[in-house]
Each structure stands twice: as structure tokens, then as C-alpha cells.
Design goal:
By secondary structure, the chain is an alpha+beta fold. It has two domains: 192 residues, Immunoglobulin-like, CATH 2.60.40.680; 44 residues, no CATH class. The protein is built from four helices and twelve strands, in the order αβββββαβββββββαα. The radius of gyration is 22 Å and the shape is elongated.
């Protein structure tokens, strides 16, 4: 029988999951070789996406999104039936910790329900997670246990609950660079190539371009400094946090949002 390899991305993940698998008799350590990335599967590239990918709320009109509130974002995988034979995944999420902290993780059912392994997945015996809010990132990992095929198709890998810690904006990035990046592996231990759709959060007052908690002439100045696209283009270039109507441009329409909300402020 072909020997398949169990692998959790990163040294920390491996140190956490392998002792659990070995103690339960699911993995025979001598047969686990050092893995090297392999070619992508097929011509279709799976996508990892934040759902919802955009959360824009008004601080006063949407009080549940004020400081101290919570909300959830799913990380889903989208791929056609037959791909990507997902056996192990590790997702790293980064965010602005002045605005958001990760409160908790929960595993989705994509691997646990989809696997044919009678041993299930690592989520059934251990939580393979790490949360580092002081540094603005967190990660979670899961793997099928035993010598079985991976899982294909679409589904939810994980759910993340965020705590709102500030007033402003934050990317919610599926991080693919730096230490312990997001990684997908097939049942042969090879890397699966994928794309990402990151998330975005904003809870500022509508019209508050500079983020000071008030809508006034200072916001018009901030819009002028980030005017995009030109000509002429603002000296500071595009900033999504300044883009009042989130249409990908900073222009007279954003000035109109300021005028329509003139005088509003956070108590």
C-alpha cells in the first residue's frame, strides 16, 4: 500500500500535532520522510477566502460594532470536485491589533466530515492553534489522520471570532509570507498552489476619513491628500481607510459623503 505522509505546516504545528497522532497510534514516525514541495494539482487554482470579505459599519448606527463588540469571519476553500485532495492545512491570519484581536477559533467541517479516515482529523483530538494578538496574527491547523486520501471540493476550514479593540480600519489577511505562512498540502505531502481573497473591516463613522471620531473640514483635507486616481493624484496615494464609499477611488464622491454627514461625532 502506498505510504502517505502526515505533515503539519511549520515547526510549532508539527511539534503540537505529531505527539498526539503518535500517542494514538495513527502515525509511525520512522516512515515520515522530509517533505519537499511538489507541483500544483491540475490547472485550476483553489481559492481561500474570507467570508464575508468586507465588513463596513457605522460606529453609531451599528452599536454592536463598537469597541468591545465581536463578530465572526469564516475562511472557506473554493475548488472544483476532484481538487485539491486537501490533507493538511495551516492558515495564518494577520490584522491591525489596535482595531481587532482574535477572540477564539472554531474548526469548520470540511475535513472532519469529508474525510474517509475512520480516525477523523486532528481537530478531534487536539486544537492546533496559536494566537498572538500583541503581534497582530494568529494561526490554526488541521490534518487528516492515517493513510487515507484528502478531501476535495468546497467548504469551511475555520471560523474566527474577532474582538473589536478600537475605532478604525483593519485588513484581515490570509498571510502567505513571513514566518509560518498559510499552506495547503495534499495526501502525498506536496504543496497545493492557491489564491486568497482577504477581508476588510471598518467601524468608523460614515464620512470620517481621518479617523478622529468627527466629520468636519479635516476629513476634506484628508481626502485631498489621498486623492486617487488623478490627475492630479494626492501626495499620499490611495488608502482604503480614507475611501468613504469604498469604491476604489478617492474623489468628489467621498467629499460628498463628508458633506452628507457633516457635524457627526463619537461621544
Amino acid at each position: 500500500m502506498r505510504k502517505k505522509r502526515l505533515f503539519i505546516v511549520g515547526i510549532v504545528s508539527a511539534c503540537l500535532i505529531l505527539p498526539v497522532a503518535v500517542s494514538l497510534g495513527f502515525v509511525n514516525l520512522p516512515i515520515i520522510p522530509i517533505l519537499n514541495p511538489g507541483p500544483p494539482l491540475g490547472s485550476f487554482t483553489p481559492n481561500l477566502l474570507c467570508d464575508p470579505d468586507t465588513i463596513i459599519k457605522d460606529y453609531l448606527n451599528d452599536p454592536s460594532y463598537q469597541i468591545g463588540g465581536t463578530f465572526s469571519v469564516d475562511v472557506n476553500i473554493s475548488a472544483p470536485v476532484g481538487e485539491p485532495d486537501l490533507y493538511t492545512w495551516h492558515v495564518k491570519i494577520s490584522y491591525d491589533n489596535d482595531t481587532l484581536n482574535v477572540n477564539s477559533f472554531a474548526y469548520g467541517d470540511f475535513l472532519a466530515v469529508g474525510t474517509v479516515s475512520p480516525n477523523g482529523t486532528s481537530s478531534g483530538v487536539a486544537d492546533i492553534t496559536g494566537t498572538f494578538n500583541d503581534d497582530g496574527y494568529a494561526w490554526i491547523a488541521e490534518s487528516v489522520l492515517g493513510d487515507y486520501a484528502g478531501v476535495d471540493g468546497n467548504g469551511t476550514l475555520l471560523m474566527i471570532e474577532f474582538l473589536i479593540t478600537g475605532y478604525g480600519c483593519s485588513d484581515i489577511n490570509i498571510t502567505t509570507t513571513e514566518s509560518m505562512p498559510t499552506q495547503l498540502l495534499d495526501s502525498a505531502g506536496s504543496d497545493i498552489t492557491f489564491t486568497t481573497t482577504d477581508g476588510w473591516f471598518k467601524n468608523k463613522l460614515t464620512g470620517d476619513a481621518n479617523g478622529d471620531g468627527a466629520v468636519n473640514v479635516l476629513d476634506l483635507g484628508k481626502i485631498n491628500a489621498h486623492w486617487y486616481p488623478g490627475p492630479p493624484e494626492g501626495a499620499l496615494g490611495y488608502s482604503r481607510c480614507v475611501d468613504n464609499n469604498d469604491d476604489g477611488a478617492i474623489n468628489v464622491l467621498d467629499q460628498g459623503v463628508v458633506n452628507a454627514n457633516w457635524g457627526r461625532s463619537v461621544p
